[in-house]
Amino acid sequence: MENLIISELQNGKTYSNNNHVINKHVNNHCIKSIANNYVVEVIENEDILKELTEYSINYAHSIGFVGLWSEQKKFIDISVVPPMTLLPSPFPMELFQKATSVQSTLNELYYRISLDYDFLIEAYREVVKADKWVGRQVEMMKLVHAEGIRQKFVLQVQRADYMTHCEDGQKIELKQIEVNFGPGGVGFAPKVAKLHKKMIEKVENLHGCTPNSMSEAALPKAKKIAEALFQAWKVFGDAKAIVVLVFDSNLYPIQHHEQLQFVQFELEKIARNAGSILNISKMTLEECAERMHLNESDYSLMVGENKRVAVVYMVYGYLPEHYTSEKEWNCQLNMERSTAIISPNIRSQLSGTKKVQQLLAKPGMLERFLADRPKKIAELRSTFTGIWSLEGNDSFTQALVTDAINSPQNYVLKALRDDGVGNFFDEKLAEMLQTMSVQDRSAFILQQKIRPIAVKNYLKRPFHPAKLEVVTNELGVFGTFLGTYDGKVLFNHVDGHFIKTKSHNSNQGGICEGSGVIDSALLFPEAQFQKGIAK
């Protein structure tokens, strides 16, 4: 059945949901329509496609939805529109609302986890034996804890990722993939939402009305994360202190996926509107190591001799290869020992791994942190997939590993590190499980494979024509949180979304590794979706 659905989607066939049929009137003909195919129905011919493609590129340039060109890294005056979808992808409205509904709970959940030192130590007790990188992070956390935490505040910028899941044509569900700290997409999320809003307006202009296939669709509001950074800077309490944004200028061809300058521009605007003058510095991790130092008398984090740091926001520094020498490690340690607000700090980094995600799926674990939120616990737990530790050699784990080796198509093997490419599928998954020792397995988790619904959209990559593909979507919902180290919540917001879209036959969907493109959501009632399963 699933192969038939994919084949017929590729051939342009439309479906009607048995429970909800939409009648679309075009040239006095009645055409059955579903949300999965709305893009094909509104882009009826090559002339419309050409006009929309040119319009999207022109408008993207006009709003700054551009990034540096990978072929000309040294020249910041040369830019291109990033890989994107021509129109927003259809996404079930009810599931989008659920993802945004649980985000504030997720924000506070991970805040509470980051404050639970004993939980984090126990969580990584076996992992540190197999993963030296995680071991070093845990040792840093221990050192800072023993010395006494000087940061008074916790700032979290978080993105929770989800996909739709539909097993054998049953009800469409929302399933969590992972939770990220210091996430990508924060700069471009509001830009792609703005572009797609304009593109929907252009579609309406071309048709002279809202096409019937979009009659019940809605665009979610675009939001920005800079307000949380401003609030963190304010509570630090030093009007002359600076904010440092840590990035890597060599993340091509996808540095435009981060685009921290948009965060910088918005943060400066918010500060000015509030009557403040805020100095923001963008630095690589290597530059931080060279220019930052710790004032041992009051533990202020300094840049040069006279710039005190209030906030460090990092979208780089979460992988071993980001630390090319001991200088970067020492710099990270200085940050953690300082009074500056580091986002994510070492505890938040260790809270946001797949290991903690796996532990949270265990019975009773959410209750440990959210005992006062029974309704939210149930809502959040319903988004979890099957996810298991591979530590130990008990009978359950042995049976699980055996089943994964025999039926690898039902699982994903994931490294604990958040590197975007540490996911293994099919034959590679089986091969790795057959060759890994029990100790080596502790650096991985096994997750149930999600079966997302397939939709259609045009993918537009730089210097290539827009191409119609059958795709699957990964929804990322942003959340920002500010609290104190003694448990007081100061700021808890849900801050918009973006979507990573990839071809339905690609396992890897990361934008950084080239298979995914930047997207946003157009919300349709769930009843309008064909419940096809994409491999």
Give the secondary structure arrangement, pairings included.
Blueprint: H1 2-10, E1 22-26, E2 29-33, H2 38-42, H3 46-62, E3 67-68, E4 79-80, E5 84-85, E6 89-92, H4 93-115, H5 117-123, H6 127-130, H7 132-147, E7 153-165, E8 173-181, H8 189-207, H9 226-236, E9 242-247, H10 255-258, H11 260-273, E10 280-284, H12 285-291, E11 292-295, E12 300-303, E13 307-314, H13 326-337, E14 341-343, H14 346-351, H15 354-360, H16 365-370, H17 374-381, E15 387-389, H18 395-406, E16 411-415, E17 423-424, H19 426-435, H20 438-441, E18 444-448, E19 455-460, E20 467-484, E21 489-503, E22 517-519, E23 521-524
Helix pairs in contact: 3-8, 9-11, 12-13, 18-19
Biggest β-sheet strands, sense, barrel? 7 strands, antiparallel
Which band does the percent of strand residues land in? 15-25%
Termini Cα gap: 11 Å
Assembly status: single chain
Q: Give the low-pLDDT segments.
A: 1-32, 252-257
Radius of gyration: 24 Å
**Mean pLDDT across all residues, rounded?**
88
EC number: 6.3.2.3
InterPro entries: Glutathione_synthase (IPR005615), Glutathione_synthase_a-hlx (IPR014042), Glutathione_synthase_C_euk (IPR014709), Glutathione_synthase_N_euk (IPR014049), GSH-S_sub-bd_sf (IPR037013), GSH_synth_subst-bd (IPR004887), PreATP-grasp_dom_sf (IPR016185)
Protein name: Glutathione synthetase
Cofactor: Mg(2+)
Short description:
This protein has 20 helices and 23 strands.
